[in-house]
């Protein structure tokens, strides 16, 4: 089973040991996990050390190492240089793809995100129709910024009338930061594994953002984090504690409807990235985007 490894206790040492990621405190082994199951390693703690052999093994498996700041937002991500076996050709196709394909891809991503937001609102007992109807207005490249219109309706109803999304703030925002860090790490892994370059985004294009494409492709999955954070906050308060981290890390194993079956989030991200890479190569857009899970599943996240 795919897993996110979170290091939040100071002074831990991470190393490779016969196919396992081993966590130690001094000479004492704290735990180990098969390297083949590691999707990403997220480090919050001070004084964490690791072996070079572990980092190269993680790179070989496409698993990023994410270093976080005090607000639980990522500050640095270590990713492998090589990804897909046809990386060179796919990178050229990505770089040479025409603007209309990028714009149509972003349109589909926004429509998928809004559908997930509408499902999330319905699951928590809020009116979803005003958001769902916005999907009809999404243009190529979302030129009229319908995504922002949906967000203005969505956030007060999902997190409360006083809530404002602020990456630098504490409480709910800090828990959201952690959940999005988990999702961003899993998405970055999928992007690299598909032979795509994470810097070349569909929509996000800030010159300082080395993971623009990951930020684009994770958008439809964000409401899953939101539902989970809401559930955690209602039960235990808005704290980035061990339980919250464990619960949010498990989101990558949540099954989503995709292609007539159910697919874990981590696999769905991989399918989406691969479908985008194939679209770049063929010049014909055919994205593999998930549908929202049922209301009962969404309402139960974090509870």
Nearest-integer average pLDDT = 92
The succession of helices and strands, N to C, reads EEEEEEHEEHHHHHHHHEEHH
Helix content: 40-55%
Shape: globular
Provide the low-confidence segments as ranges. Answer: none
State the gist of this model.
The protein has helices spanning 52-60, 87-96, 99-123, 129-132, 146-159, 172-193, 212-217, 222-236, 242-249, 265-282, 295-300, and strands at 3-7, 13-17, 20-25, 28-34, 38-43, 49-50, 65-68, 74-78, 255-258, 261-264.
Question: What's the topology here?
Answer:
Layout lengths: L2 E5 L5 E5 L2 E6 L2 E7 L3 E6 L5 E2 L1 H9 L4 E4 L5 E5 L8 H10 L2 H25 L5 H4 L13 H14 L12 H22 L18 H6 L4 H15 L5 H8 L5 E4 L2 E4 H18 L12 H6 L3
Parallel strand pairs: 1-5, 2-6, 5-7
Antiparallel strand pairs: 2-3, 3-4, 7-8, 9-10
Helix pairs in contact: 2-10, 3-5, 3-8, 6-8, 6-9, 6-10
Could you walk me through the main structural features you see in this protein, from its secondary elements to its overall organization?
With about 300 residues, the chain is of the alpha/beta class. The chain folds into 2 domains: about 5-65, CRISPR-associated endonuclease Cas1, N-terminal domain (Ribosomal Protein L15, Chain: K, domain 2), CATH 3.100.10.20; about 85-300, Up-down Bundle (Four Helix Bundle (Hemerythrin (Met), subunit A)). Helix content is about 45%, strand content about 15%. The strands form 3 sheets. The chain has a 4-stranded mixed sheet. The protein has a 4-stranded mixed sheet with strand order 4-3-2-6. Helix 2 packs across helix 10, helix 3 (about 100-125) runs parallel beside helix 5 (about 145-160) and helix 6 packs across helix 10 (about 265-280). The protein is globular, with a radius of gyration of 19 Å. The chain starts with a strand and ends with a helix. The model has no long low-confidence stretch (mean pLDDT about 90).
